[in-house]
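Re: FE2/S2 (inorganic) cluster structure - here you go.
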Amino acid sequence: MRYGGFRLGQFEKHVFVCTSGDWCPLQDGDGLGVHARLKQLVKQAGLNERIRINNSGCFNQCGHGPMVVVYPEDVWYAGVSVADADEIFSQHLVGNQPVARLIYDAPLGSNKMKRDDEGRIIS
Ligand code: FES
């Protein structure tokens, strides 16, 4: 992507997976598994120089995870499973078509869900 004559970013797709927040990595799903699967798929396809999968800390959207963000499109995904990672890889990262059913639709800013003392989401 170009902006004002400059290329933005060092990769065609730069993906961040919440892997060190309190909830996405293990509580709200398997964020660690999502990250590992995306890295595996990129490596198997030989796309390491074009697609970068990075760990990330909390996006302040806890309770909606596991969360994944793809740049430069600025597409946010919520509730991503390991199986969904395959679809994100093939359809979005390779095919340039975001996976509509996983797109996160929330108000701007923080959207952490409230939890009780045992970590259960309070609706
Ligand atoms: S732990 Fe992933 S958004 Fe907060």
